[in-house]
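User: Could you go from structure to sequence for me? I need the amino acid at each position, not a summary. Structure tokens:
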């Protein structure tokens, strides 16, 4: 894919994408029956749908991703869509994909849809007073990675088989904002997460089909492997390895090949080589 966001901020130019499969490029063009949400509300004082509960991170990502000519918060087939870019519908989701399942399934019947999701590579933990004053800031020891998207993709893995759907990952640096609330968030000793804030977008990965998702597997996997071997090869937790295999099986690019003790053994279908180089996306 050569179409991409046109951010206005000074960010690294090395934006990467998983190599694109055929299918989306041939989507049939059609005029979209879109209307302004404010128009649909038809009355002053009624806020645009989707805006009142919009978090700071979502709003910042939408502002970063938007480019000239995009229409914002548009009503399409009964759903509010974050951005309409020509024939493409862009939906930005910072949390679980599960609430979007019905919306995405309905919209992809008639339109090209791109789901944009941030993956925090680096997270800074910022503690604030009740008045919003900075108390402390430190970098989280946990570093994110592209594979983290599979713990959200488990809600909609089969959608990547649809020729009108694609997923774009924004690899970000974020601030996680916390305030103290006595008796809450026991594991964080009372520090409650109240929001997230975008610091920068470092890279971008486009996943347009099951073969693209299969390329996220590590190169050094044996032909037959279980989730313990996948976790070891990719240096990820076993739980995430299980989520990866679940998604890839649902997409049809991973098959079971028996058992090794209690562990299910998997093999790749006829897909591109795991870990293969990603094509660049022009900004």
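Assistant: Here is the amino acid at each position, in order:
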């Amino acid at each position: 894919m050569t179409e991409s966001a046109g951010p206005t901020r000074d960010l690294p130019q090395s934006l990467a994408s998983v190599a694109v499969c055929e299918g989306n490029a041939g989507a049939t063009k059609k005029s979209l029956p879109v209307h302004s949400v404010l128009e649909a509300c038809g009355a002053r004082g009624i806020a645009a749908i989707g805006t009142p509960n919009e978090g700071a991170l979502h709003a910042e990502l939408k502002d970063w991703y938007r480019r000239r000519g995009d229409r914002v918060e548009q009503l399409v087939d009964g759903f509010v869509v974050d951005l309409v870019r020509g024939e493409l519908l862009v939906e930005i989701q910072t949390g679980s994909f599960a609430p979007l399942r019905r919306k995405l399934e309905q919209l992809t019947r008639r339109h090209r849809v791109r789901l944009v999701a941030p993956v925090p590579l680096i997270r800074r933990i910022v503690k604030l007073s009740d008045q919003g004053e900075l108390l402390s800031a430190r970098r989280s020891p946990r570093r994110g990675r592209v594979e983290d998207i599979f713990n959200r993709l488990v809600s909609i893995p089969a959608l990547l088989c649809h020729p009108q759907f694609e997923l774009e990952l924004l690899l970000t640096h974020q601030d996680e904002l916390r305030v103290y609330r006595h008796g809450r968030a026991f594991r964080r000793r009372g520090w409650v997460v109240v929001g997230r804030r975008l610091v920068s977008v470092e890279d971008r990965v486009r996943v347009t089909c099951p073969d693209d998702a299969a390329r996220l597997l590590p190169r050094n996997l044996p032909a037959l492997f279980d989730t313990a071997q996948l976790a070891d090869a990719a240096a990820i937790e076993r739980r995430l390895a299980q989520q990866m295999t679940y998604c890839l099986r649902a997409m049809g690019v991973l098959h079971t090949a028996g058992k090794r003790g209690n562990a299910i053994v998997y093999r790749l279908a006829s897909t591109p080589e795991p870990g293969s180089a990603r094509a660049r996306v022009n900004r």
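One structural detail worth keeping in mind: The chain has two domains: 24-122+139-172+199-215, 217-269.
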